[in-house]
Amino acid sequence: MAWQRFGVLLACALRCVAVYEAGQVPLITPSRVFTLRQVHHHGVHKYPYLHRYADVQVSGPLHITDEYGETLINHDPRYFIRDDFMTTLRPVYSSHDHGHRSQDDAMPISWLQDERRGPAVTDKQTVLSFAKMAANAYARKDNSSEWKWIDVGSGFNYTDDFGWENDGLRGHVFADEQNQTVVISIKGTSVSWLDPPDTVHRDVLNDNLFASCCCAQGWPWLGKAVCNCRTGWNTCNSTCLTAALRTRTSYYWAAKELYHNITMLYPDADIWMTGHSLGGVVSSLLGLTFGLPTLTFEAYPDALAASRLGLATPPDYSPGRPGERGLHAPHVYHYGHTADPIFMGTCNGLFSTCNSWGYALESKCHTGVQCIYDTAKDLGWRQDVRAHSIVKVIEDVLDVYDDVPECTRETQCTDCGKWKFETGHHG
């Protein structure tokens, strides 16, 4: 990798010299232009083998929408992103599992570090561009005629089925002008008054699967259970939880299939990930699974789900058992602010807004690196779920601050400390 790094640095140095001789301010890392190319949809519950995509020709402004339906029109459909070097961590599986492309039942046996090109995570314009791409995944139509869906070969015929668009995971694909790099933006959680009930129900199911101690079973999550892994009072079966995360009703499974199919369409491209809220969590899990540079926005704590899938979690982290050694993932960056209770892991409990809306968000620890804007101190904001909106974050946080905050690792964080987790076969 050393010779690749030297080559890129040399090219950058020569460009800077040329710019300097022209009398301009030298740029250390020139921006590249990304545009929306495709929209992908992968089914989960009723249509687990369905994967369709539509090519998108954008000639006008793009819509940036949040989960509440608020829309900010981005008049320039181009996104400017700068590169930087990044160390990534990816799992290695045994040779027995190598032939199974999804490694559905496998756990990593070791980890590899790679040095590769990634986004400039401290550059304000780059972070803003990623946030806008994350927001664009909420928009159903973007200055285009009706999307013409193309089936990715699956052997199943869903041509005459209705409602498939409301069942599954949606990802928007952005690429640079040379198709050297692709950014996949995963849609976050829908709200009940904007999207069909099937879509909302599936989002809530995955939120509660990823972020609750035991599938939202037990007090105070009455009526919200998404699996049957509880074995007693504050006792849960970890093997059962892992199996639930790997089923075809899980967005994690759908995201892996989506990723594999997109890499077939862009076989020579680097893949980067982004997403907001639930979309950020799914993006993070995908980034941890395949060692992909990932920038998330207001994602609720994801270490709980990552640990159950055998992915990299923070040092000294283990659910229910603090003090065990974890592994730092240097390529996953979580951007958020202190007035968002969902990002901060405080939107839980019997009388919380999240509980009243059907969410059991008990997790408190993030993977990777956190870049936290202190809006409570700097702007006087109080914690409010309305501060979770990606449009509000773009307009009132990312665009307002002059600089990206210092990004730090999370250490000595514990999830579900009152729970005991067992392994082995469960009913």
UniProtKB/TrEMBL annotation:
Q: Which reaction does it catalyse?
A: a triacylglycerol + H2O = a diacylglycerol + a fatty acid + H(+)
Topological category with respect to the lipid bilayer: Single-pass type II membrane protein
Where is it localised? Endosome, Multivesicular body membrane; Prevacuolar compartment membrane
Q: Name one Pfam family in it.
A: Lipase_3
Cross-referenced Gene3D superfamilies, in alphabetical order? alpha/beta hydrolase
Alphabetical GO biological process terms = multivesicular body membrane disassembly; neutral lipid catabolic process; phosphatidylserine catabolic process; piecemeal microautophagy of the nucleus
Which keywords belong to this entry? Autophagy, Endosome, Glycoprotein, Hydrolase, Lipid degradation, Lipid metabolism, Membrane, Signal, Signal-anchor, Transmembrane, Transmembrane helix
Q: State its role.
A: Lipase which is essential for lysis of subvacuolar cytoplasm to vacuole targeted bodies and intravacuolar autophagic bodies. Involved in the lysis of intravacuolar multivesicular body (MVB) vesicles. The intravacuolar membrane disintegration by ATG15 is critical to life span extension.
Spell out the protein name for this chain.
Answer: triacylglycerol lipase
Q: Which organism is it from?
A: Peltaster fructicola
